[in-house]
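We modelled the chain as a single entity of 114 amino acids. Its sequence is:
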Amino acid sequence: QVQLVESGGGLVQPGGSLRLSCTASGSGFGFRIDPMTWYRQAPGKERELVAHITVSGTTNYADSVKGRFTISRDNAKKTVYLEMNSLEPEDTAVYYCKKGTSTWGQGTQVTVSS
């Protein structure tokens, strides 16, 4: 059973930065062979895709975060990262990572507020 654990969320002022991590553990998984995706869900809104990285490292981003967020992966550590800079109050949400098409983490809260 694969498990994903997100970390790195917290409270940050507008303009600040955070780095989220998502680490895979458990048996029977192949981190290297799955694309990884970060999503977020703000209160009262639907979950939305934030950033995606393929097995080969190709990335794509939601328009709202382009130029501010960077997704990366370390296959040896079975971890995907989301570097978030120039954070805005609109970035406040619970951030989730997803492995492949169906394995989700539990989420980590990001709050951007002064």
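As a brief sanity check on the tokenised model: The mean pLDDT is 94. The radius of gyration is 13 Å.
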